[in-house]
Amino acid sequence: MPLPSLVRWEHDFKPVPGTLEERLYKDFLQPRDWLPEFAAASR
Fold first, then answer.
1. What CA–CA distance (Å, rounded) separates 31 from 26?
2. In whole angstroms, what is the distance from residue 35 CA to residue 8 CA?
3. With 90 as the cut, is the pLDDT of residue 7 above it?
């Protein structure tokens, strides 16, 4: 996978409350169990 020349991950990152980044984390980047969805779609 191509990545930018500088890539950084922070352990246990918490976005600043009230920012758009926090909304992204709360609304879109939640853990998800993909297996039941995949199994239901392939039936």
1. 10
2. 29
3. no
